[in-house]
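fwd from M.: "can u put these together and see what the complex looks like"

so here's what she sent:
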Amino acid sequence: MGDHHHGPAKGLSRWLFTTNHKDIGTMYLWFSFAMFILGGAFAMIIRAELFQPGMQLVEPAFFNQMTTLHGLVMVFGAIMPSFVGLANWMIPMMIGAPDMALPRMNNWSFWILPPAFLLLASSLFMEGGAPAFGWTFYAPLSTTYAPPSVTYFIFSVHVLGLSSIMGSINIIATVMNMRAPGMTYMKMPLFVWTWLITAFLLVAVMPVLAGAVTMMLMDIHFGTSFFSAAGGGDPVLFQHIFWFFGHPEVYIIILPAFGVVSQIIPAFSRKPLFGYDSMVYATASIAFLSFIVWAHHMYTVGMPIAGELFFMYATMLIAVPTGVKVFNWITTMWRGALTFETPMLFSIGFLVLFTIGGFTGLMLSIAPADFQYHDSYFVVAHFHYVMVAGAVFSMTAAVYYWLPKWCGRMYNETMGKTHFWISFIGFNVTFFPQHFVGLAGMPRRIPDYALQFADFNMMSSIGAFIYGASQILFLYNVIATIVAGKPISDEKVWDGAEGLEWTVATPAPYHTFETPPKIDPTHAHS
Amino acid sequence: MCFEAKRLAKLALGPVLMLMSLVSTAALAAGEAVNEINMPRGVTEVGNNIFDLHMTIFWICVIIGVVVFGVMFYSIIYHRKSRGVTPSQFHESTKVEIAWTVVPFFILIGMAVPATSTLIEIYDVEDAEMDILITGYQWKWKYEYLSDDGENVSFFSNLRTSQGEIYNASDKGEHYLLEVDEPVVIPVDTKVRLLVTANDVIHAWWVPELAVKKDAIPGFINETWTLATEEGIYRGQCAELCGKDHGFMPIVVNVVSKEEYGQWLDTKKSEAAEIRDLMAQTFTMDELMDRGKAVYERNCLACHGGNGEGGVGTPIAGSAIATGQLGGHLEIGINGVPGTAMQAFGGQINDVEMAAVITYQRNAFGNNMGDMVQPIDVFNYKKG
């Protein structure tokens, strides 16, 4: 290493060859936003087709490609990379480390992502069309009956998995080895904790996903019969393997969101997080439980009753640690001195809507009732309350919260609040009526529907267009801030914010904590 | 105060808008099945139990929600900085943490008890009075009434809604997308065991009012049951994504009196005998073309197009198979193409239908082959 690190390199090579956690974090964030727009465009096509009964805009086969790609792009392209980007930016700054532990691997884990998505998106232009078997790609629809592009999909998933595994190894190595002296585990900010646990989940389940797609590849091209009963295999085996990955995956998405909210709510309540220790234990319990509940996605496959009961009880248990988290956040607000800047609004929006998603999740855990809910729009409503109002709202809160620190300029508060209210209303108009049509019997993933579902679907589509449009406001606000926002120089952007990231200069210099900060041993966690 | 009221109004905007939309649609819905906002109670005891379970848990969630959000909104209103409050600094209490871990745990036990008993009831398939084998196909259902004498009644149930309605060329009927050419018929007050499987990909047989949803998995047979207590027509749909026309394979169950069911079964049996007679007949070209057109529209059109132009399937107009050797055409019609969406129709349609549809394909869409296939040809081909 040279004696001094200077500023970033100039031009394209800065971004191609960078090993700087802030640059890589920035790239992750922009990439995930681009994917969010792409996945959102797919959603707009879906909602436009569902605006009225009858087929108007697209053919059923293309509709299925849209639902599939919407799910894949949002989960693997938008939400997951956005939190990895946030981890890259914030974890070193929160634990007083100069950079991530494995900076070169960090570069790789980002740069293999764009080609993977290019590969996936290119399948739209292939003969037979893009994958059309849903983001859960159940065999044999995704093997024997899949379009030829499935092979590209498999390769793309392998690369995404590789990227995630590298990213999470890096996070584990950073958190374990690079904490500033005195920064004990139980002093780490909760965002670091939730990410550490998430990273372990990723390392545990991404190889399982890779195994599932490899078995598909073998079935398609090499004459094996893992998922075909005709050759002695079992299509349900696929679902077990998929959801053994898939259930922890939903916590991979939501745990970092919990972390973000646990930073923001105390800051705008001007009061320490209530029950820090119990938050850590609750996160760990949720992570553990996430491994033993996968088959609640499969109550209708015909499991023996003992299996059904086990998965039902285990799933219901998740309500306990999740409840603890919600109660802690609300108690944090209790008798604080609250203000409602945009990050806080999005966090409160998260709190309310995620809790509603949690309630419907509890309802879905009840196996006999799930026989009616399963694969209906009730499920679609449920997981969008958790994924959008949960993960995406908290990510949006994170951007508003840390953007001033990143670029040294303040965003437009009025525009931020407007963005929140349009998002909040648009989101609820989209997804609340979906509970109704689902309960009344509308299956998910259908391009056309019976007449009794028409009004709520139209409402849902209007809401979706509103929510979609509000993201343009967000993009505009972020760019306007970076280009021409009001310059600020206080280290502490928010008067109630705690943590090491608020001790460095604003905007955060290219290199921070080249010498480790001193941690006050008497000071509690941040 | 005024400032605060404005804030409050802002906060309340979202929920108020949602409530308004709910009320307006609920008003529209009065008395009709449209804009239903809840699960149907249905016409089975299991359905009733599931409905009660669903409502119990819903109200428990509502109560918890009111308390939790009540506390939160109290805090949002009274603990705001603009009121000049000094933030307290308390940040932990083991007692409180234990309380809100233990209390929810007991609430969950309260939910688990009725859930378990309902589940046990659903899993009890013993003592069924009759069996129906349900097989999912891309994209239709086959029903087979199993009987001890080996004379099973079986038929396919296809979507009846026309392409014109779907593509907005004509007005949509009352049961748009939820109507079939031949509903499954079951007797009232009779425990019917349903054996559910699939021929190609995974489907799921779902009829909300019977409270039955079971995955149809190729190579495996799932069992479930229903006992309808009210006569009527109940409609459902495939619930598991099964490819292009997943949204177009409805289920219609006709629950009738036991006498009516007996008559229906007799009619089906005599129809089967008629078809056996037809098999021995020789048809004219016109007869074959008429029958063939109907068979084509029911079974082939979804993939091969209304004018044989292709789609998911290859084109039939001018195709090497439809204008080539008869043997090759029979082979593909009867045995399908393994590993593709082209199914083996030999077991799905009878020999008369097969003869007719092959004749039709060879003489329609500009394929003027001029040759005919008779049921006996199909029979002989199958024999080898």
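replying to her w this: Chain A has one domain: 27-502.
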